[in-house]
Fold this protein.
Amino acid sequence: MLYELARTGLFCLPAETAHELTLHALATAQRAGVIGLVAPQVPAKPVQCMGLTFPNPVGLAAGLDKNGDCIDAFGALGFGFVEIGTVTPRPQPGNPKPRLFRLPARQAIINRMGFNNHGVDHLVAAVKRSSFGGVLGINIGKNKDTPNENALDDYVACLRKVYDHASYVTVNISSPNTPGLRTLQHGDALRVLLDGLKLEQERLRGASGRHVPVVVKIAPDSTPAEISTMAQALVEFEIDGVIATNTTASREGVEGLPHAQEQGGLSGAPLTAKSTAVLAQLSRDLAGKVPVIGVGGILSAADALAKRDAGAGLVQVYTGFIYRGPALVKEIVEAW
């Protein structure tokens, strides 16, 4: 009830303003020790995945806390793991505002944020300040002005800086809001990227004595043949996990709604079936050799269980969390 009241007020504000205000309010509530007023009591339901123990299978997807400034607060809301980012080597402002749009009639969001963030050094400093002791994912990307042929340099630079501070690292090559980024999912570009990342991961593991899983996040808009080829590459290069999926460039299910014509990635309920179908094929093609984390259009426990039944060992929420609040986390964990 408290979250529903807060959401009503926040939805009266521009979406990005509401987002920033929410992060500030959560961080303030955490520091004041009153975040329990909105945090449900989530039962323990441990899950083993990628060599890690997750307190429960429900995580916060990347994008809500791009700079790692709200880790402790999100960690107190019952999530089994928290993923921050996407972060790039250098700070960048992202795309011009407005760039975040609600479609409440379909419990959806369109964003074209464009990896706006304060840079990897800011994020690492925020992680060091945090007292969060749970499973922390750090999502890395490339700067917009870095040519695709040099993309590996950006990802390796981020991997080096976050390796000692992450439980796992997600490689974001599937956002629709950085021009040309999704071409890194396919063909020789993907193989070069995976090969270089695995070499750097092995070097860092040797230097630190600690294996930090590397996970790849893919888009929901690939063809079945492209998904199969990606799966083959993930297995060949022994990638530790895959997140399916990012937002979609499609507008199926929101036609004619206010803001539906805005450019960017669509998330929320219209993505549910598409994302789950990609996850199901990917799981079949991987045949248990690489664990899959399901994300995309999870607005209820039933949506999360459909991801699980399609092959996901863990799930993440973003847009569902915006519309449903922390109660969604408890609902999913209890049903898992």
In short: The chain has a mean pLDDT of 97.
